[in-house]
Design goal:
alpha/beta, 421 residues
Length: 421
């Protein structure tokens, strides 16, 4: 089939490449021309897709990257994988709307349009379908098919990939569901049919809300445990020995990526705007997790004052990690970046090291870990804050050389000069 994937980012590119590998003729539509040119040259900016894998589908003519909407003509399946950010703390569906308008011109009878972008319940039916019908002059569910299939991409996860992660599929009608399922059966091992579009949309935002709320719970627990003088990390290890009724979540400097800081807000905002009701747990979790970078800074500030009788202002601080999670270069909404920004605003001299980001954050220097400059070692810093525990970091060497470490991820052994959050 001729497959068009609109948006070639962390979600769209893996889907496009996988569909090409499955034998489809795939058009990857990317309006960002610089990105499009990189893809056409066989250079991937998405870590989950290596250059060799991208070049293989390019060389076989199974994949074509374009920024020209006319290349969408004649598609059998079009999948929308565009961003759904927040603007002024409210859901921003402008990219979904733009994609719908672009596609509508090229819809032919029998074609299928699937939305994968995370959004609130009702978006596919109430936002996307009217745009497709208006632009095409056709009727959804009768002349063409519409579906929703939430993305479940976890950047940097070597175990759970697009092809082996169960894929929820939903359709406007039973016929639409059948067409959507038939396509995803060619690119994924397991498809899970939903009874309706809204149920599938709600399932996606709830998956991320579940994580968001539980991370907020352990972040709050870590603060209380510190006040009480209790080791929260050992507490969580003990609780995790229970074989039922408990799922282990861990504290950290905050939440990042596209999902957790944004997706639950879609649900909360929609419920309030449409029905005037407040999703209190989401709003409370948002408050806790958004304040976590400030808490990390306060802990570092307290440690410098207590141990060395000095302030953050003028202190030399080594920040390890800028991505929002280990093993990736994804710094979207990263709490690590927020921490370093706050430290700089307080007058600290901050050096950021992230082996996955050549220049981590605005104005940060790339300094090799372990030998931060020709005449500088880790011990020359007043403090080290471990924000993202990439596998490249030598934690044993860090423990041996650092004057003081604030470990926000609980991956180091506590010691007189090592504090865990």
């Amino acid at each position: 089939m001729h497959i068009c994937v609109l948006g070639q980012g962390y979600v769209g590119l893996p889907l496009a490449v996988r569909a090409a590998e499955a034998g489809h003729a795939v058009t990857g539509y990317e309006p960002d021309r610089a990105r499009c040119e990189a893809l056409a040259a066989g250079s991937s900016y998405v870590e989950d897709i290596g250059d060799d894998r991208l070049r293989a589908v390019l060389d076989s003519d199974a994949y074509y990257a374009t920024s020209d909407p006319q290349d969408l003509k004649g598609f059998d399946i079009a999948v929308i994988t565009v961003p759904t950010p927040l603007t002024d703390r409210a859901p921003d569906l402008s990219c979904v709307r733009d994609a719908g308008r672009v596609l509508a011109e090229w819809i032919e009878p029998g074609a299928t349009v699937v939305l994968e972008s995370t959004t609130h319940p009702g978006t596919t039916r109430d936002v996307l379908v009217p745009l497709l019908e208006e632009g095409s002059g056709l009727v959804a569910g009768r002349d063409f098919h519409v579906g929703f299939s939430p993305e479940r991409i976890d950047p940097g996860n070597p175990d759970w990939r697009l092809e082996n992660t169960p894929k929820i599929v939903a359709g406007l009608t039973e016929g639409c569901l059948g067409r959507v399922k038939d396509f995803y059966d060619t690119v994924t091992e397991v498809t899970v049919p939903a009874s309706g579009l809204e149920e599938a949309e709600l399932a996606k935002v709830f998956e991320n809300t579940y994580r968001h709320v539980n991370i907020a719970l352990v972040n709050e627990l870590s603060r209380m445990a510190h006040t009480l003088g209790v080791d929260v990390w050992h507490t969580l290890e003990l609780a995790a020995t229970k074989p039922f009724g408990f799922t282990r979540f861990l504290p950290g400097p905050g939440v990042g990526g596209h999902c957790l800081p944004i997706d639950p807000v879609y649900l909360s905002h929609h419920v309030k705007a449409r029905h005037g009701q407040t999703f209190r747990l989401i709003e409370l979790a948002q408050d806790i997790n958004e304040s976590q970078p400030d808490y990390v800074v306060r802990r570092l500030q307290d440690a410098l004052s207590r141990r060395f009788r000095r302030s953050v202002h003028g202190a030399r601080i080594l920040a390890l990690g800028a991505a929002y999670k280990p093993g990736t270069s994804d710094a979207r909404q990263s709490p690590a970046v927020e921490v370093t920004d706050r430290l700089r605003q307080m007058g600290a001299d901050v050096t950021v090291v992230d082996p996955h980001l050549p220049v981590a954050g605005g104005g940060c220097r790339e300094i090799p870990f372990g030998a931060t400059a020709a005449d500088t070692t880790v011990g020359d810093f007043d403090a080290v804050v471990l924000l993202t525990p990439h596998g490249e970091f030598d934690l044993d060497r860090l423990a041996a050389e650092a004057t003081y470490v604030l470990d926000t991820r609980g991956v180091m052994t506590a010691a007189p000069h090592i504090e865990r959050l």
